[in-house]
Amino acid sequence: MERLRGVLKRVPRFPRRCPRSKTKPFRDPRLSGLVHSLGGFLFGLFLAPVYGMTALFVQNQGLWYCVYTTIAIAFLLAFGTGLSIRVRANVVLMMPMLCSMKGKNFLLFFIFSMLVQGPMTNTLENFDRAADSVVCGAELAMNQTQQLVP
């Protein structure tokens, strides 16, 4: 009975196909940190023009306003994500928001504002021209009335 218990407790050993290396590959933690910082810096530089294009083309902000704010955001975001793990984590955690329901609503809002912006701008321009035409007609009538009455 003792012999049977000893056999049951033994773990079967299968031959290894490839022997494992007893030494781990050399990885420098400073190099890993440098790669993460550089990746965060480049990611921040990528996100800033995305904001600038959105402000310029979707919101129709002024060109110089977009340039100045994009440079400021690029500086803050690039150096923030490049130097701070907390900023990098916050930015990465906020990115999936665009894929959620709130993000889809946000993108639909931008698309709707772009669709409405053209006809609304045209309607306001037509309204301004009609108002100018009415004012011009009223001035013409007033000038002709003054010429008739001496």
Automatic annotation (TrEMBL):
The chain crosses the membrane at residues 31-50, 62-85, 106-124. It comes from the Eukaryota. The keyword Ligase does not apply. Keywords: Membrane, Transmembrane, Transmembrane helix. Signal peptide: none annotated. The keyword Transmembrane helix applies. This is DC-STAMP domain-containing protein 2. It comes from Salmo salar.
